[in-house]
UniProtKB/TrEMBL annotation:
Pfam families: LRR_9. Transmembrane segments: none annotated. Signal peptide: none annotated. This is LRMDA protein. GO terms for biological process: melanocyte differentiation. Coiled coil: none annotated. It comes from Bucorvus abyssinicus. Gene3D superfamilies: Ribonuclease Inhibitor. The lineage of its organism: Eukaryota, Metazoa, Chordata, Craniata, Vertebrata.
Length: 139
């Protein structure tokens, strides 16, 4: 397990056998670039600056799918990308569920997303409609 407070993830490339990585409470955004970590199964990115601006979150999820193929546990709580009603009163449970479908569409091997276990029904829904479930609120 690595606990990192950082502005750069440059040094992670030397830990290719890393299995768990907690990057909570940093200033990491959608431009987050991890080195290839083939054994990483748990990634915590809580309370950072990840958002659904433009297509950058899609690119981040595509990047994670590529560099952390063994990822099973991901948490994005406390980021603008995660429309949790506890963090932002403008969002509701439906927004959060659409976010889950979108993330599961991109990262289909996840067993847990945030604090919830991924259900079979969610996985099926993510396959069918997940690509269209990005949460966007009009201004």
């Amino acid at each position: 397990v690595a606990f990192v407070v950082c502005r750069s993830l440059e040094g992670l490339k030397t830990f290719s056998y890393l299995e768990e990585l907690i990057l909570d409470n940093n200033l990491l955004g959608n431009d987050l670039l991890l080195p290839r970590l083939p054994h990483l199964h748990t990634l915590m990115l809580n309370k950072n600056q990840i958002s659904f601006q433009r297509n950058t979150c899609k690119m981040l999820l595509d990047h994670l799918a590529d560099v952390v193929p063994s990822l099973q546990y991901l948490s994005l709580l406390g980021n603008m990308a995660c429309p949790n009603e506890l963090v932002c009163k403008e969002h509701d449970e439906d927004d959060y569920q659409r976010y889950r479908y979108f993330v599961l569409h991109k990262l289909s091997n996840l067993k847990f997303l945030d604090t919830r276990k991924v259900t079979r029904r969610e996985r099926e829904e993510a396959l069918v409609r997940g690509a269209f479930m990005k949460v966007v609120k009009p201004k």
